[in-house]
């Protein structure tokens, strides 16, 4: 997680440092950058404008914290607000640490949860205004974020939230193990007017059913050197189409480490915001399972099959064996996942 913290006074900077220290002690892997807009603090003063700093960092930032007034935060982030599925979480805490406010992306960005977290760090009162939270109701966007799922239709998601807030229940249909108790607002196998379908397949849902896609499908890929991004994309999309799998279900693309700088794969992963994971030949040869074999591939890479083994390298179950599309080979796997209703 990458966090930007803006401070606008000496006291605000002190509060920012407090948040940084406590957050890093709790989450070792977090990256926090404090930007100080206070001329009195010459040693740490940032000359760029707030908007310039946001523009420079927005693509890689998950959370923006303003230690100061809500008005400053609103004016600063306004040019960068796109959609709740893409916006970073924005939290505002006053410099005395009395109030901590979830300002933007409370559900999908985790802003509400982070507001509670920062409030606990500082002793502030958390201020959360989203209706489902205030009324203690199920929120499909919050549920999707916690379970690493993709919402296929945001208009339907809004309708479902409004439907629930009016006191109605919705169907929920899934074929995965789960933990926790299913919320009272959700019913299985009942004829509710609206519904939620959890599936990684391309489902033909009706106008009153929202599909939510779990990110559980891994892609293993092999290709000739300098294969361009269009060929990579074509091969992956054709493979997914053949298996009727929704592209938003992907959680990784894997290959052998000699492909770690393969521009076509890198560009595809960047376009789809997917991690590109590579493995050594030794690591791939250790993967257990029944895989296709190619003497030619083994003579070049040191492993008899790249795409199948890299798809299943982390213990995933292979669901689609090697398919060949010109200069590209593709295999698909599925990882174990549990729906969390807690």
Q: How would you describe this structure in keywords?
A:
342 residues; alpha/beta; 6-stranded mixed sheet; 5-stranded mixed sheet; 12 helices; 18 strands
Can you tell me about this structure?
The chain has helices spanning 10-26, 50-57, 70-77, 111-122, 131-134, 140-146, 154-165, 229-242, 263-272, 281-285, 295-301, 307-311, and strands at residues 2-7, 31-36, 63-67, 89-93, 99-104, 125-127, 149-151, 170-173, 178-179, 186-187, 195-198, 209-214, 217-223, 250-256, 276-279, 317-325, 328-334, 339-340. With 342 residues, it is of the alpha/beta class. The strands form 4 sheets. A 6-stranded mixed β-sheet has the order 2-1-3-4-5-6, with helices on both faces. The protein starts with a strand and ends with a strand.
Summarize the SSE layout with pairings.
Layout: E1 2-7, H1 10-26, E2 31-36, H2 50-57, E3 63-67, H3 70-77, E4 89-93, E5 99-104, H4 111-122, E6 125-127, H5 131-134, H6 140-146, E7 149-151, H7 154-165, E8 170-173, E9 178-179, E10 186-187, E11 195-198, E12 209-214, E13 217-223, H8 229-242, E14 250-256, H9 263-272, E15 276-279, H10 281-285, H11 295-301, H12 307-311, E16 317-325, E17 328-334, E18 339-340
Parallel strand pairs: 1-2, 1-3, 3-4, 5-6, 8-10, 8-11, 9-18, 11-12, 13-14, 14-15
Antiparallel strand pairs: 4-5, 7-12, 13-17, 16-17
Helix pairs in contact: 8-9
Task: Give a concise summary.
The protein has 342 residues and is α/β, with parallel strands linked by helices. It contains 12 helices and 18 strands. β4 (89-93) and β5 form a beta hairpin.
Mean pLDDT: 93
Major sheet: arrangement of strands: 2-1-3-4-5-6
Secondary-structure element pattern, one letter each = EHEHEHEEHEHHEHEEEEEEHEHEHHHEEE
**What percent of residues are in strands?**
25-35%
Radius of gyration: 23 Å
